[in-house]
């Protein structure tokens, strides 16, 4: 059913620790072996690493694990295929341009009765429900906001309302970012944690790796990690509720269903 | 002033040999140290590797050099910045969706008096003349062909006419692909070679590497490589003329200014 991983931080931060845990779920400690991808933003630009091969065996995933690329906004996905075959064009995350910025999206879940959704000029390339849903979101946003809106928080609240419509068609857990803001939407499985000073040790569930974040950070760092299931077994993760959305900026949660 | 590298092949082929030569020109045997990128197509999907760091020192370029990714259509670019600073969003190649396919573009050259070019809904993200020119091409194509045209060769001839307009604004050497077709357009510097049976040895100019293609290929393989300057010193490369375009499909040249 796939797993998601995201990060929002106020300083460029690498995600090697969390990605090391996630990677194992792509074929070793988990069944999500039908491809993986990760997108790192640096300013307005981004780098994508993708492979239709299982992450636990991928040479490219190994590079990402060992080569610390620092970023303030990251989305990653490991796939267990349902809609759409195993192929690069069906591998998340998906990236499209809107309002002169690159938008990146990843989905965990499965939709039914979705093929009626209009995507306008944002054509899917692959065959997944996920990519089509993303194209639909972009089309809806472009119709409502022909140019980039002033009030981005209000715009993301509108996206949450659109996600409610998608959730009515099945399971729709989502991460969405423009490189600055990172939005989460939960159907059934999504967790988050914000790490800030005083930092402490963290222990991965899927690999024998422990890290002392106090040695890796400064007292001003704020780093939020989002994952389908908690990646560590010694920290307190928040579990999101069905229909809950959260909006993060520079690591801080700035809006939510309840905020 | 940048260098381009492209490949069109009738069987998935790796570009490690040519890329090894090109890499050196990004900071060692050449001055193109302001970032590099490469796009490999696999079916309708693609993989992008980019770095704003010089290719001759890039860890990611080293992976690409050593990890043979097989593809029928590849575009690569090493940059010497003029318009737009050194940043990931200004690093070629650029990829956008049109007609449900990913289109990839790279440019070598510099334009002036181009900011009036309309790009419609295809907004540039970075600050280069190159990306803006690409967005203008996409907008022009979408206006003329609201859906994917039947006659792709005629469409590419139309693109060549659009490139003539860009060439009037400065230096415009270009590679453009949708993963199937690969088009080249020359202002001043672009060369190509089609390798087919009987294959022979090839010797790089920029690195002490020689390969015997006969050991790497089957008799049916057809592989065209395009480069700003020839990469080998023992083969016969064709030099393109100003205003010349060529269209390749599965390694064969199927259309040209003269064909």
Automatic annotation (TrEMBL), chains A, B:
Transmembrane segments: none annotated. Keywords: Glutamine amidotransferase, Transferase. One of its GO terms (molecular function) is transferase activity. InterPro entries: EgtC-like, GATase_2_dom, Ntn_hydrolases_N. SUPFAM superfamilies: N-terminal nucleophile aminohydrolases (Ntn hydrolases). It comes from the Bacteria. Residues 2-251 form the Glutamine amidotransferase type-2 domain. PROSITE patterns: GATASE_TYPE_2. This is Class II glutamine amidotransferase. It comes from Oceanisphaera psychrotolerans.
């Amino acid at each position: 059913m796939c797993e998601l991983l995201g990060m929002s931080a106020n300083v460029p931060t690498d995600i090697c620790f969390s990605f090391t845990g996630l990677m194992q779920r792509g074929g070793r400690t988990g069944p999500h072996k039908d491809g993986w991808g990760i997108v790192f933003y640096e300013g307005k630009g981004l780098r994508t690493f993708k492979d239709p091969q299982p992450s636990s065996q991928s040479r490219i995933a190994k590079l990402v694990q060992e080569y610390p690329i620092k970023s303030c906004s990251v989305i990653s996905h490991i796939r267990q295929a349902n809609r759409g075959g195993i192929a690069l064009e069906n591998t998340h995350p998906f990236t499209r341009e809107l309002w002169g910025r690159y938008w990146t999206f990843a989905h965990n879940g499965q939709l039914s009765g979705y093929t009626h959704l209009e995507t306008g000029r944002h054509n899917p390339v692959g065959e997944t429900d996920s990519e089509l849903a993303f194209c639909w979101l972009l089309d809806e946003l472009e119709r409502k906001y022909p140019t980039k809106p002033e009030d981005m928080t209000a715009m993301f609240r509108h996206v949450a309302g659109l996600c409610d419509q998608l959730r009515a068609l099945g399971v729709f857990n989502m991460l969405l970012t423009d490189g600055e803001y990172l939005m989460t939407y939960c159907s059934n499985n999504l967790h988050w944690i914000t790490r800030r000073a005083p930092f402490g040790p963290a222990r991965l569930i899927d690999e024998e790796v422990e890290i002392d974040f106090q040695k890796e950070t400064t007292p001003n760092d704020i780093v939020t990690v989002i994952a389908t299931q908690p990646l560590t077994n010694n920290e307190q993760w928040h579990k999101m509720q069905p229909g809950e959305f959260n909006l993060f900026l520079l690591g801080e949660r700035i809006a939510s269903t309840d905020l």
